[in-house]
């Protein structure tokens, strides 16, 4: 790893204190045919290092913060998804998955994110993970919830907007995205409709997140037919935000 690599965003697997896996644990897990995890160790540094390089479908990812070395520093999570009783508070230790050096410049590209998510979702099924955090959107997810939305997306379903991005309802009825810029370089702001339940606005925003992750950034005004609504989308002057509102009849 090079200096500054630890600042790269990725996925955090959060473990109860003292339960993080070692490099040996990961090697044994990936070598076991019954695990079904589509990854292998492509580089193991000298003894005492806290990381492994893993190869997944031709892409490399670093797994950092392995025991007995120190865990990766945690991250602030502003949005929690999938927990019945709220996200766990404190006492967790993080292992991080990030794009390897050779693919780091494309860490927001869909093929790279898909392989990273695939690796994390599989590891979650075999390790005592208490929570999963996606750093670009400052989200934290219940492990089974994370694996479920991940595998649904990887099998052709909708983009996991409530996890790999976050949606924040605003008091005026609008909904703002967080973390969408990691994928398309822009965030989204959906204006509310008077009298519309906030839950309906969020559902529409989820569909729009899926639309933009499939079609990429918006560079000029666009009309989107959502089936039930005709929507007008327009990039901001600086191009960093997409404003969306309903076309009134």
Please tell me about this protein's structure.
This protein has about 250 residues and is an alpha+beta fold. It has two domains: about 150 residues, no CATH class; about 80 residues, no CATH class. The protein is about 25% helix and about 25% strand. The chain contains six helices and 14 strands. It has an eight-stranded mixed beta sheet. It has a six-stranded mixed beta sheet with strand order 9-10-11-14-13-12. A hairpin with a 2-residue loop joins strand 3 and strand 4. The N terminus is likely disordered.
For the biggest β-sheet, the strand order reads 2-3-4-6-1-7-8-5
Radius of gyration: 19 Å
Strand content: 25-35%
Overall residue-averaged pLDDT value = 91
Secondary-structure-derived class: alpha+beta
Total number of strands:
14
Number of domains: 2
Short characterization:
This protein has 249 residues and is α+β, with helices and mostly antiparallel strands.
Topology:
Layout: E1 11-16, H1 23-31, E2 40-43, E3 51-56, E4 59-64, E5 79-81, E6 92-99, H2 110-126, E7 131-134, E8 139-141, H3 143-154, H4 161-164, E9 166-169, E10 175-178, H5 181-184, E11 187-190, H6 198-215, E12 222-225, E13 230-235, E14 241-246
Helix pairs in contact: 2-3
List keywords for this structure.
26% helix, 249 residues, 6 helices, DUF4261 domain-containing protein, alpha+beta, 2 domains
């Amino acid at each position: 790893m090079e200096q500054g690599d630890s600042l790269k965003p990725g996925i955090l697997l959060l473990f109860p204190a003292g339960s993080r896996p070692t490099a040996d644990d990961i090697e044994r897990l990936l070598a076991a045919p019954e695990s079904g995890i589509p990854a292998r160790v492509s580089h193991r540094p000298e003894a005492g290092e806290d990381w492994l390089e893993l190869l997944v479908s031709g892409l490399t990812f670093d797994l950092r913060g392995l025991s007995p070395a120190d865990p990766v520093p945690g991250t602030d999570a502003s949005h929690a998804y999938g927990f019945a009783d709220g996200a766990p508070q404190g006492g967790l230790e993080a292992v991080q998955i990030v794009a390897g050096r050779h693919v780091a410049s494309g860490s927001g590209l869909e093929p790279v994110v898909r392989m990273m998510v695939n690796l994390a979702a599989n590891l979650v099924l075999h390790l005592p993970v208490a929570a999963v955090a996606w750093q670009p959107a400052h989200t934290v997810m219940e492990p089974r919830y994370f694996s479920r939305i991940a595998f649904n997306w990887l099998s052709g379903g909708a983009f996991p907007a409530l996890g790999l991005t976050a949606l924040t309802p605003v008091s005026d009825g609008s909904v703002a995205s967080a973390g969408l810029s990691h994928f398309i370089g822009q965030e989204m702001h959906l204006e509310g409709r008077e009298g519309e339940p906030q839950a309906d606005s969020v559902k529409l925003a989820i569909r729009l997140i899926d639309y933009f992750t499939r079609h990429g950034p918006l560079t000029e005004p666009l009309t989107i037919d959502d089936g039930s609504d005709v929507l007008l989308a327009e990039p901001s002057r600086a191009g960093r935000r997409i404003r969306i509102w309903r076309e009134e009849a």
